[in-house]
Amino acid sequence: MDQNVIKVGDFVIVQRQGYTKLHKLKSHGTLSLGSFTVEMDNIVGEKFGATFQMKNFPGNRKLYTLEKVDEMPGIKCINIEKSGLDNRNITDDGQSQNLTTEDISKLKSEALDSNSIVEKLVNNSKTFNSKTEYSQEKYIKKKEKKYFEYVQIRRPTIRLLATMFYRQDPTKTLGIRIDDLSQIMTYSNIQSQGIHLLYDSGTSGLLPAALLHQLGVESPAHLIHLHPGNECQKSALVAMNFPPEQLNRCINVNLYSVLRCYYQQKDTFGEPPDSKKMKIDEEAEPKKPNWQKENERACQLLNKGADSLIIVSKEHPVSLVSQLAKFLTGGRYLIVFNQSREPLQDLYVHLKEKLDFICIKIVTNFMRNYQVLTNRTHPEVNMTSGGYILTAFKLK
Fold this sequence. Notes:
Number of helices: 13
Strand order of the largest sheet: 2-1-7-5-6-4-3
Mean pLDDT: 85
Largest sheet: 7 strands, mixed
């Protein structure tokens, strides 16, 4: 089946203006999108990137269905007759709108047209013409956002997922912004070959998804994804709809469990002699739990050495680096991300005392997004400075 065709079981990103939401498509499933409850069956069989209009479901004023359209019409300009000098005499008493809730619901059920509804709201507002020009523009944008009836179904990508998770709650990805993620990917030099080692303690699967995407399909590369709990966070990992072959090359194992397995059975992970191979094949191998099989797979790869080591953690990184740096092959980079500078300063001092790491440095970005409007150009109000990245080069 064409990979660009939407099917049941796929993860999709539903975009309505600037708002995006991740959704797993189920048969006869619905999606809550603001004040709308949308029935999603009509997108099955369509292609990613298609645009749909929300239509009121017959006989149910709260349920909407999707109807495919060729393109998304632009917002019509509303003719503003006049505006006030200031808003000092405007009071929010709840009586400024002539249309009742029932009237607005009737408009939505008859024909959900955001342009028409916003125009009627403006015409029936007692205070609209008294507002300043900026306040009128803000009012129109707010109502357009509330009643906008078009959605676009997009394929999940790393950029979209990173932006969406960060907008919803930065703590879901340990504060990693899209520019932090791009720097981590660049420093780690992830390629479609080799063995790559990642410790991730809470990015909702964003880091393993980004690294696995970089490894590509049907490549010999493997990713060992270490995590602190019984189960790893993999929201972004499953959302990318990776094929089974690619997903199987990401080995998710508990950090402490795999280290215990490695040191207890270290001598058994080498390639057995030819004389013993036949005996091993002939013997009936007892059934092992899946986590133990994954541990042994990871240990066999760790025994060969890792081509990159990336640590993104809530914990203090010094002990983690002490345990994992020995698996990093010489001539490769160590990358550690943390939201705070102080833990990385401790790690910097720790690595300076060692003889096998050089080019140790701590970097940070302060990417500022600007609103660019006439007489209103300024940095966005809500911003964070992202995190800090330590990089070090390991000698052979």
